[in-house]
């Protein structure tokens, strides 16, 4: 394989690896843009992964699985919304609670599905194109899960920056107080943002279980949801930057896997730490710059600084 | 729009912000609403705009009674308000801010074409050189005010409320604003103009209403009103009992020296501050709040980092950043908004009072821990209520917290006392207690920097008075020889 | 509603214990209702299950011992969360610090296992490992305002993988044909057992002593008072010469050391060797316990016991009720949600 094929292959497998993360990243970006942080995305992702897998396995339809994942994630995020917006609980603690709930529920109900395998999205016959050195890998990588991810990415970017609801969302995140002087109701906007974020996290989880690995193990997301929360900061709360950020993580992850298969002497466990460490490093770098240039939505910044 | 507010009363706990206020604005009339800080102007106007509801009283628009639940209702009724702060969103562009407030904005708002032109029409008339794609955070404060005004004009409001609109404008922008206000009135709209500047009243007001301590004390046509009459209307009130100025020993030994001080951020800053204060001298700093007083006070007290220049006390540099942190017990510092900045709300009064000396306690505090025994006398002297040292600070009212901070900062021997509006909102007895302490420190040889809006008190008790405007010291005069009117003009930026 | 609020104010003014009891009773009630609803939705009898939980946790000597065994790491991890929380730092990194302490402590044992200083050396190493693991996010927060919740969570995964690497790699005991683990620890580094024949070791006493000690430190020392000032109003504290950054470093380091201690105790006294996955949920459980205790060191002790009971009952539920292991996690989550919801509402509904 020549260099071009290697790079293309790495990017494409990085993209596949990154898609679930991308969904969660976009979802959390929307939520945080309204001034609410939701650490429970990990739990929402897990619940979505389980629900998606269960539905796909029982109905045989991977599309139903993706939809089911979205709904499951949104329902769980409603718990977070109720805790934060109705009872006034601390946002971070509430996120951890939702995380535990999602993880526990998915592990609890997921037992009958452990070890099962599904077909996921069966790729159509591409014919001659499949052998083309450029088109072939691209066509194979562009599964419906990946395509849905890319569509979500474009949709988020456009809606946030070009539409009225997106404008209101950004206004509320910057200052709920200012927004309310304009007649906007911040809590309504935040509820919507939490639910959309929850749905997208669930969709990401379903992408993982239905499209990418096509099986189910408890706690299978291994912290990807949390990585997403970190990457939101790196992406400066800009959904357009979500794809490169997620891709970074995905590429590092698939490189680590590749290095393992190439028999490089480093332990697979150490290699697995790379994505988290890279994320942490980029998070640190991103935090400095985000704070300096004030990219963080201002109402969110107040939440992050205080801890009551 | 004819607005009629009758018997408006609003209480926050035991504090009466507005008491039985009647106010009327006729169609096409410009009403100037005057009063000091805390007089109740903002509350009254917030009630009109729908932010608050009155405890008693009614509002009628064009003869029909209305009850606003939120700004949405008042906006729908045709009332628009131009805020002094917190209404524009700095991270968004000018255009986006206008879009947010634009009625019937389409789902996908356009950035060019006829719809965009209509959106920007009012802005272009007010500020033709302003780029609508610029972020609000990047434009000068004066232009922010004009964007705010454009926002409200887009609503085609029949009543426009302007809250201190000229406080951040340059003289040219101010004139443009006055013209706009007169045009609004000529178009048949009503305008309520909250201000404490004489030039605003003189240039565009038809009538003047003055609030003092929650009540309306005056309501008359603006014609023929002089600046002196106006300021006495606003201030009024009982004078502090006839204590006399502390005698000044000598002035040849500088105690506090400030050289080339520069500090602050986009919201509040000071530059090029040079001051020399003798031991036992009281330097009054006059000026409308918001001209950098908070930064000046914090830098002198060694609480805030300076960007350039130095603060030297008794020959030793004490500005923060030089060699760590200056000794807190040298300086008594009453900050702006002491109930927020000067107390630890979750801790009890004993601890709050002992903060400055905490670092002298041993590691295992044992019997030396902050106790009620040391706290009670301080609470007594400054009349802090409730007189219970074990209460948490957050249980106290704003006024009592102020007294608490004064009690802490003005106790003991200090080399320097920096007091920012130490008696704002306090009643007569508490004010006297603060002054007594302040002047005693001066008698004992401390330098006192006294930042205040109470020009009359400064004139009576300070030795010299400096006027702060837009972050610079416009001038320093001997209090005994100062001309009140001239100082008043300096405070408004008119250095002749 | 106003009537209820007034009643509450009356009762809290008359009885000093009212608010405290309310803050415990309310979430407990909500938890019982919610978990009963959960069981009922599954088609199981809630009362019977609750009975089995209590029986499993306290109904036999074996049950009590197992409850106490689980209480030790939970208690320590709760302390590890509560100390930084005194400054307002929200660290969820106890499990990462747990692993880091276990790792470094094991390394020390592998090096000096035979000597009679092995035990203190092991403890020191474990505390150091945990402290270092906590200082990284602490530093990131103090210097660059990096959110410590996120940083500690990410590092949890890294620490767990670090242990996996050691256990599958360089420290693997090849003579052990079972699951991957290090060699067994010598007897000299294991604490004595409290109940003969059981797993319950003296670490329980150590943990309780730590709780008491930290309580005294935080409530009686000037440093503890400074932390409270900084937490309440950071600018004010810094204005009188305190250093928030130093406080952040110190509290994180102490918390990390305690969690590291938990790690090595589990490793040496319970498992007898370092192996993968020993932290289980202790980190998150500790976070939950700390939160429920209001970050109060002494209250953490009984609440850790309750949590220990809940977790060890998971085994009972598995055996007798055929419910999966994850039930304990779900119950914990429901408990946490109940605590958060009632805490928030009680705070809001304070005055009429």
**Number of folding domains of chain C?**
1
What is the CATH level 1 assignment of chain C? Mainly Alpha
Please report which band the strand proportion of chain C falls in: under 5%, 5-15%, 15-25%, 25-35%, 35-45% or over 45%: under 5%
Strand/helix succession of chain C: HHHHHHHHHHHHHH
Radius of gyration based on Cα positions of chain C: 21 Å
The largest interface is: A-C, 48 and 48 residues
Our count of domains of chain A comes out at: 1
Mean pLDDT of chain C: 88
Residue-averaged pLDDT of chain A = 87
Counting copies of identical and different chains, the oligomeric state is: heterotrimer
Description of the molecule:
The complex is a heterotrimer of chains A (308), B (496) and C (352). Chain A is built from 13 helices and no strands. The termini of chain A are far apart. Chain A is mostly helical and 308 residues long. The longest helix of chain A is centred in the first third of the chain and has 31 residues, at 3-33. The mean pLDDT of chain B is 84. Chain B has 16 helices and 20 strands. Chain C has one domain: ABC transporter involved in vitamin B12 uptake, BtuC (Orthogonal Bundle). In chain C, 75% of the residues lie in helices and 0% in strands. Chain C contains 14 helices and no strands. The chains are: A mainly alpha (308), B alpha/beta (496), C mainly alpha (352). Chains in contact: A-B, A-C, B-C. The A-B interface holds A 162-165, 167-168, 170-171, 174-175, 177-184, 294, 297-298 and B 51, 70-72, 75, 81, 83, 86-92, 96, 99-101, 105-109, 137.
